[in-house]
Amino acid sequence: MSRLQGPSSHKRKQPEPNSASGSLTEHERILYHVIKSKQNMGIWTRDMKWETKLPDYVVVKSLKSLQAKKLIKEVVNVQNKGRKHYIAAEFEPSKEITGGTWYAGGNLDTEFINFLQKHCVKIIYEQKVATLEGILDTIRRSRAFNVEFTPQQIEEIVNALVLDNEITEVESNGMGEFDSIPVGTVCYMCTNKGGRKGEPKIGAMASIPCGVCPQISLCTPDGIISPQTCVHFTKWLDF
Amino acid sequence: MVTQYGIKLAVHLMTNHFGNVVAKVCENLLQRGPLTLQLIVQLTELTPQQVTSSLLILIQHNCVQAFSLEQQGGLEDGPKADTQYMVLFSNILHRMRFSKFLKIVSGEFDEECKELLHGLLQHGRLTLKQMVERAKNMIEREKSSKREGICEDIVQENLLKLLAARYAERCPTHEAVLAAPVTEETTAKKRGAKSAKRNEESVTIEQRVLGAAAPMEAQRFSIITNTGSNVSREISTNASSSMSVGEKRKYDSLELDREPAAEEEEVVLFRANFEEFMRRLRHKACIENVRTRLDDGSSIVLRAMLEAARSLEKKVKTEKPVPLSLNTIFEEVMKSEEGRGMTLDRVRASLAQFGCSPSARGTDESYSIDLKKIVELAQNDEVSLTLVSKDMKIHVSVTKRCLTFSTLQLESIVLKRYGRDAYRMFRLLSKTGRLVETDKISDTTFVEKKDAPKILYKLWKDEYLHMEKLVVAGARQSQFLLWKVNKPSLQEHVLDEMFRAALNLSQRVAYEREKEKEFAKRTVLCPNN
């Protein structure tokens, strides 16, 4: 997967000399200066107008010109995708703007994340018990991905799997299946023996209609929604 | 105090089982806590006779316990002026579980034992004589060929079986007498002022009353009376003589605490021991949980340890950990068909899977179950094992592997009601146990930043999450939302929802039954339609 860029690509590049700024108008220079001062955080057009006190049509025209001269670029702000957000060309947008490693074009790259998660679950299932280092090492050796993952990135993926109850986090006690893992090391095991997607065990409450009904607070014996007339109950009892 | 829908459910059960009058008395006790007879009459606007009869029924069926505070000046005959009546909410709910209790007994004993338990559940409490009479009536009704002569022996033998298994027990005293509140100076000598205050607060009035009413441990599961005879001799008082087994028991008066006179014989009443049934059910659920989480072998080992501990528990006090040698555990494992295929190493490996790691392994490996933790297991739905290896105690909580069932219930409700994204976020906040900012939650759980606030807000609105706003002053004021799972209040909220769900289910079942009856009636009247 070539979409994922490693952490080095987020480092700020050295700003280039002011060779292009010599041909800027006064308004363009003011605007460019404001945008550049925000570094990798960039700035929203409305904030630009507020800071520079320039009229709307001047800002719009100047931004077009700066973009054409490749001095600035528009980026998607994951928090507010509808807003026009600009950043100086020499900078890469910060995590707060892009959403971080796992975002692409302002959206969470769920396809990529799911693919990587499935791969990690497969590794853990095959190894029965796996450490973070073990998983990372196996991914590297498998060459299934074009990019290099950091331990932190794999940890994020694995933590989400724990929260999804697909895998369990345990500590090695050095015995049995943990005998090759130092005592106290955090490791991971599949929740389900088959390594299939973990559907967590359903509690008694969640197995009856009332347990999962979003209208439970409105349900009364004499009300429009009542146990006697409940369609979910009718369906549930219809066996 | 009991939750809103807990009260409604209990009142619904009491209405179905004993009628509106009894239910009204019960409702007032649930809403207001322990009350005297006078206050109940005042609040319910029922006649004193109605209230008295209702209380007698509730006491008979172990749903109410009478108590009074110790007064100076010695004991008096008859009911004390300050006798209060306390409702036992758990025992009311247990009435929904009677069929499960019968199933447990029918799995371990024969049909006659099960029938004996059925009698205890049906009547609340019975003497041995009444149990025998009931059995005789049944033989007559069924025109059974069993000889009546051996009936008494069989009934006694079955009762002994139930007592030995702790499925039956002696009834508590009719009216418990609570000691006057202990002053701080008195307890401070033993435990220190601060811890004494904490201990007192943590022991509820219900626990104190039940503790004071309970028979001595040595007598609780014994059929032997104080007179020393092997068979209890029932007293022929006004209260018991007019009763016929098969009807609900009615007392002439509430003078249940009268000391028997010298010429009267002792009345020993027995009842089902709900505590033991609940413990068995929880053990069963815990073993099943281990089977799902780990494997069959581990569940067999856990069951064996609990069985072995249970038999030891009868001989020693529950507070002290009792060491179980690996051989003892292995022997217990061998008793079951599934366990016979397991080796000693396999058993050892299963114990290791629980997270147990003794510091030294020798020829004399021993493990002990902290029996107090096992008792707490019935309350907290956790499994804890304490390992003792050569005098060194290592306390291990199996909850590393086993989720607490209350957590399981909460999480599965969130999953089913709000979806997988909400499930991940809820689990994160549940594990973290502190306030977490929205963006941090969405980053960790891989939920879209634009979706996370909506889902969190929905959970907050339905009282599954606690929310706080943090305003940061700077060049521009920024507002952050922080979220947290407040477990105690959430558990109470979900518990109330569970009571509501149980009530809804009960009402729906009653409605369906009514529909069936009407349909049957119509079919009889108009068979061609």
Structural notes for this entry:
The complex is a heterodimer of chains A (239) and B (529). Chain A is α+β, with helices and mostly antiparallel strands and 239 residues long. Chain A has nine helices and eight strands. In chain A, helix 1 (26-37) crosses helix 3 (56-68) and helix 6 (132-142) packs across helix 7 (151-163). Chain B starts with a helix and ends with a helix. With 529 residues, chain B is an alpha+beta fold. Chain B is globular and about 90 Å long. Chain B has a four-stranded mixed sheet. In chain B, a hairpin with a 2-residue loop joins strand 9 (384-389) and strand 10 (392-397). Chain B has helices at residues 4-18, 20-32, 37-44, 48-60, 89-94, 98-108, 111-123, 128-142, 151-164, 184-191, 193-202, 205-213, 217-220, 238-241, 274-293, 296-313, 326-335, 344-353, 371-380, 405-418, 420-432, 438-445, 452-461, 487-525; strands spanning 35-36, 64-69, 84-87, 168-170, 175-178, 270-272, 322-325, 366-369, 384-389, 392-397, 436-437, 466-472, 478-484.
